[in-house]
Design goal:
This protein has helices at residues 3-7, 14-34, 64-73, 76-81, 91-107, 121-135, 156-165, 177-186, 193-198, 201-212, 216-234, 261-268; strands spanning 41-45, 52-54, 60-62, 82-88, 115-118, 142-146, 170-173, 239-243, 254-258. The protein has 269 residues and is α/β, with parallel strands linked by helices. It has a single domain (3-177, 240-268), classed as Rossmann fold. The strands form two sheets. It has a seven-stranded mixed β-sheet with strand order 5-4-1-6-7-9-8, with helices on both faces. Helix 2 (14-34) packs across helix 12 (261-268). It is globular, with a radius of gyration of 18 Å. The N and C termini lie far apart (37 Å).
């Protein structure tokens, strides 16, 4: 992670507050629906960061891991059924995340200990899915929160596998359109990041051709629709919701991909 990415946690922006508000409302609806029929639910934060942000006065503000844990611990039903996995690639941020979660555990001694993984989201998620497959155990419903600082590490193959693994798996993805736009501007120097995001180099080349054929003000919508089309065609996702920010709230287009119409209805309400 670059120094600028680490700086992301040094201030708590309005768009971060908006994302965390959406996340808390969404997982509340998801957990309430699944607790009726499931004995085990898994919550995964794929880009967990350090677990906190720094407020203007220097105090610590909870990040997405802490928000999720506090919500799960708030009811005995959630605490009994939901297990958590937090993934962070950067070594320094991971050490701070581990300390944040230890602090939470000290205040909640009966709460199940989270699983922590220090590595790239796509790599660690593949290891987890492979281990579950090898064990032969049924995969519990998963809620997967994917909120990268950029684009790298959000491999389509892993998203596809998650949404094929369990029909009640839901992926909550913040799609970094600014990062995609920057990569497309590099062209011959853009490396394999875009191919990873879309699944193949052929898809990356196709998106470049599509973007080149459009006016500047049409390109962002085309990029988002192209990605949504790939998810629709290559996963078990049966329903979805996509909404965009005007830059004053969330700060970038957002894609939420649902596989449960009940959750979609509950979340919207």
């Amino acid at each position: 992670m670059s120094p600028s990415d680490k700086d992301h946690f040094e201030s708590y922006r309005p768009q971060t507050l908006a994302k965390h508000t959406i996340l808390k409302n969404y997982i509340t609806a998801y957990f309430h629906i699944l607790k009726r029929s499931e004995d085990r639910i898994i919550y995964i934060d794929g880009f967990a960061g350090r677990g906190t942000y720094t407020a203007g006065d220097g105090s610590a503000i909870p990040g997405s891991p802490r928000h999720a844990l506090e919500l799960i611990a708030s009811t005995s039903e959630f605490a009994a059924k939901v297990r958590t996995i937090f993934i962070e690639r950067d070594r320094d941020l991971f050490a701070q995340l581990a300390a944040t979660l230890r602090s939470f555990g000290e205040g909640h001694p009966d709460f199940p200990e989270p699983i922590l993984a220090n590595g790239a989201f796509s790599t660690e998620m593949t290891v987890i899915l492979d281990s579950w497959k090898k064990s032969g155990a049924a995969i519990a419903p998963m809620f997967v929160f994917i909120d990268p600082c950029g684009v790298d590490g959000v491999d389509f193959a892993v998203i596809q596998r998650l949404l094929r693994a369990q029909r009640k798996c839901e992926v909550f993805l913040f799609f970094n359109i600014e990062g995609v736009r920057r990569i497309l501007g590099l062209r011959d120097q853009m490396g394999d990041t875009l191919a990873g995001l879309l699944g193949t180099q052929e898809r990356a080349d196709e998106l470049v051709r599509i973007v080149d054929s459009l006016r500047t003000n049409e390109r962002d919508e085309a990029i988002i629709r192209y990605y949504e089309g790939l998810l629709r065609e290559n996963t078990l996702a049966s329903s979805w919701c996509h909404f965009e920010s005007n830059g004053r709230t969330v700060g970038q287009p957002v894609i939420i991909w649902y596989t449960s119409l009940k959750t979609l209805s509950a979340f919207r309400s």
